[in-house]
């Protein structure tokens, strides 16, 4: 019998390399947070407070934090990746 949760996205063990999953988790956990105004220290703390985040991992670099911001914005935008300027292309 197939496990119904086999393909479900879970947050059992997040690390700094799980950029997309972190972005999705943050969008879900903090829907009213303005990601564009977050200081890097607060962003790192929000990530580390996520359930299942692997404690004790090394601090993230600026590139990783920027990628998380991008993933968070993408998660908030949803699956619609169309642009209002697409007709100009």
Can you characterise this structure?
The protein is mainly α and 89 residues long. It has 3 helices and no strands. The longest helix is centred in the C-terminal third of the chain and has 16 residues, at 62-77. It is globular, with a radius of gyration of 15 Å. The N and C termini lie far apart (48 Å). 17% of the residues are buried.
Could you name the key traits of this structure?
40% helix; 3 helices; 89 residues; disordered N terminus; globular; Arc Repressor Mutant, subunit A; mainly alpha
Layout of strands and helices, then pairs:
Layout: H1 19-29, H2 40-48, H3 62-77
Helix pairs in contact: 1-3
Q: Care to give the gist of this entry?
A:
By secondary structure, the protein is mainly alpha-helical. It contains 3 helices and no strands.
The portion of residues forming beta strands comes to under 5%
Structural class: mainly alpha
Please mark out the parts with pLDDT under 50 across 5 or more consecutive residues, or reply none.
1-9
Instruction: Give the terminus-to-terminus CA distance.
Output: 48 Å
Indicate the multimeric state.
single chain
The name of the CATH architecture of the domain at 19-76 is Orthogonal Bundle
**Average pLDDT:** 82
Helix content: 40-55%
Reading off the top of the CATH hierarchy, the class of the domain at 19-76 is best stated as Mainly Alpha
How many strands, which pairing sense, and closed or not: the largest β-sheet?
Answer: none
Reading the helices and strands in chain order gives HHH
Total strands: the figure is: 0
Q: Please report the number of helical segments.
A: 3
Shape: globular
Rg is: 15 Å
